[in-house]
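Mods, move this if it's the wrong board.
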Amino acid sequence: MRALSAASSIWAQLWFQSETTRSLDIVRIGVGLCLLASYAGLTPQLLELYGDGGWVPREALSMYLERWEYPSLHYHFTEDWHWWAFHGVFLLACLAFTAGWQVRWAKWVVLVGHISYGYRNPMITYGVDTILASATFLVCLAPIGATLSLDRWLSMRAARRAGTPVPVPPSSPFHFTLRRLLQIQIAVVMLFSGLAKLRGDWWWSGDALWIALNNYEFANVPIGWLAAHYELVNVLTYGTLMLELGFAFLVWQRATRPFVLAAVVAMHVGIAVLMGLYLFSAAMLVCDSAFLRREWIDRLRAWIGRKAASRWRRET
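Not the wrong board. Structure tokens:
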């Protein structure tokens, strides 16, 4: 019985700790910003990328995609105004999703819209779109918007004006379960990314980073300085490989988590700066934020509150 009780306690600790949606709301804000930046940026090419007169007409798409298998609202758009109307609604939903206004409705528009765009033109989708879709789906399952949102601010303002107690954000073990699922997803992505790299000779030789930075598609900054310090290329190549392989095992330990997350931040910032993969790096960092401990967030919140209060006192 003791063994069963211990196993039950460990299982509950692993999956069912009670918490608010604050961690998921941080992910919500980050995912919303990524989606808003991505789709707002392609607005000038909307019809070229997704319309029937663009790169991938529906007739060409139907030759290798079954509509019942890959659902998309966009299969039913036949006029240009359909696209512009939906795109406008979608961008407004992304903005509301990010700001935390009417999230319980906006989140489903964002999820369905993102999936529909991806299936309408799979030629321009890649890993980051899948990562954002998975993160959005898990976040949407929770009653997000109870913290770090415009809705929360409006409810607090109304309570203060009415002289009633400020509503407390609800806590639930289900919120923690969803965050744990997102953590596992990112850990698996990192692990398989590292395992896939083991198949490449350039990773074994330590030259992979140099090859990637010399690729015209990803050449974002001058790298002549790296040629003079080629040993740094080897260190960064092997370091990237070790980090991706070790992330799934080290990120769960309290002692190693801060260092692993710091290394991941440095890696993705480097990818963004050196290779120009800004959206990918931002999406990965947003998902990695699911590993932030609650006490870290509380300390940051308290620090921001003290700074804001101090500034307010100086100005008044």
